[in-house]
Design brief:
CATH class of the largest domain: Alpha Beta
CATH topology of the largest domain: TIM Barrel
Strand order of the largest sheet: 4-3-2-1-10
Strand content: 5-15%
Number of domains: 2
Order of helices and strands: HHHEHEHEHHEHEEHEEHEHHEHH
Number of strands: 10
Amino acid sequence: MGDATLKSSYARAGRVLFLALLSALFPIPTFSARMAQALENPPPLEAMVGQMVMTGFRGTGGHPLSEDLRFLLEDIAKGKVGGVILFEPDYITKSGRNIQSRRQLRNLTAMMQKKAPIPLFIAVDQEGGRVRRLLPAHGAPATPAAREMGRATPAETYLRGKELGDFLARVGINTNFAPVVDLDVNPDSPAIGRMGRAFSAEAGPVARHAGAFAEGLASAKVLYCYKHFPGHGSAAEDSHAEYADITRTWKKEELDPYRRLLRKDMPGMVMVGHLLHMGLDPSRPSSLSSSTVNGLLRAELGWEGVVITDDLQMDAVSGAYSLKEAIRLALEAGADVILTGNNLRHDPRQGRRTYDIILELVRSGKIERRRIEESYGRITALKKNLF
């Protein structure tokens, strides 16, 4: 080994020792420590509101940073955004959006988490089959569609969930908007049946496989999300494009998987769909309906955990309500996390816009502070399971 090589090796070793000493003297707070610090004192209203905001953005973390990501990182650092959702590809441009490779994704998620006073929900739709943002080309496992998994055993479905959860955790994703708990009662349903997104047409197998998949994710400290409450499987419409009216097709059996799965000892969320059932609420979709969320999901089924809206930018909602009105109704209904994917429509400051709307609704007296405190408590209790 030459003198130059030796000098280079000594220099590298010296830098490593210096960084180790620096870390020992001035340790960077762990996620758990940051959570404890953030929760030590009663938070101001602004901090609580920020935890209720989840949004999407354009950008991969490469330099120069995209406009979206610059704004987002500022908002994360100020506590105005508590969660992000990743997409690939971009719905509008049809080009790349957030995901290029395993290494790039790990760097991007770390960049965002480093800015957060309270660790972020970093979410993705990775059900398997046709609904996936991460591909084998990105290093992700080739998880099959729910219908295919439903033909195997729950033990095999658990292994699929664990394999996926392990991968997601490695790249810094801690929330998966899966599994689907809808019953496959209408095989021609454009959003569910045609895409093979349901495990079965029967409640028992759906509950067993969805529970197994969720347990697999949880084993890797990745949060599950049961969706789409109160049941999308019978709908003849896709709520991305229009109201999905389930009034005449929905059956009470579609609640059975939720009755079996809503356990207090396993951390996750429930996503409420933009589904119109006039027997539950004659005028509003489920995502904006107090009788559906506060009544059916919380009071009747006993769910005390986090409720997240489906994307409020879907045409089923955005075609009938302004964003401000939709957010107000979602909060009144009992939603904890307000999701705007910022993919179907795009605004570089979408997270800040949502935050400002919620804050104004509280300050104007249209939403009670107590309502925000309830959601903040549920969200931070769930985040404690991650770190």
